[in-house]
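REQUEST ID: PR-0412
SUBMITTED BY: lab tech R.K.
PRIORITY: routine
TASK: structure prediction, single protein chain
INPUT:
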Amino acid sequence: MEQTSRPSFDGLTVASFESRRSREMAELIQRYGGKALLAPAMREIPLSENSAAFEFMRRLQAGQVDIVILLTGVGTRTLLQALATTYAGTDVAEALKRAILVARGPKPVAALKEIGLQPSLTIPEPNTWKEILSTLRQFGALQGKRIALQEYGVTNVELIAGLRALGAEVFAVPVYRWALPEDVGPLSAAIQEIQAGRAEIALFTNAVQIRHLFQVAASAGQEEALRQSLRGVVLGSIGPVCSEALREAGLAPDLEPEHPKMGHLVAAAAGGYKKHFESKRLKAKP
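STATUS: complete
OUTPUT:
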């Protein structure tokens, strides 16, 4: 009876950006015949350390916020969860009722609904900063209005500039569950290895890893160079959310396991990378 050969990375270098389970990921990669390049891309921040969230609540309760703009569903939930470490949910809901609530699309709307609130305004598609400004202009004058802007991830400088140009006072409320590692050295080193063509496969287990990877690259002026280099790397994504983050970064995932588990991702990459390897390496050539 013919035996099926075990999937193998065949000695290639596999970059992993997993943090909490980085050692386990390294063992998996090595078990499948790969060389692990470890670059932890995240560290968890306790919700209670989101100081901007508590300053936001203080201003709300003091009547110092006229409009609240909620940009993302996950950011809205993280904001509410951070406040829940100190305040009762009913107190948060009552404070939010004092302001005009603006939701950028259906996901913040759903997050508000979970605490019994509805937005005063919902931004129409395609839900960009331009639609936010246009909708607020139609709603009324912004001169002198105090606006709290919930952020999750990259600051939207165009939106802030646009609001201020209309006379508004903008208070950004960045809320995070994840931050960059205190030591970004391994991440910077991985970027150099990828750009030098010394990593043939990259595995992502969380969408935040992708954002942080490009954040570190951008700080060194290497964002576009990294993007181009990654187009020559076989990219494995653990699931749909991670795959969407890759697409937002201008990249296409090559592999996604049937089950969103770390072991399944490594196995799928070891067994399927050859289908993409040659074409990806050609893209990497100048």
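NOTES: Residues 47-177 form a domain with the Rossmann fold fold (CATH 3.40.50.10090).
REVIEWED BY: pending
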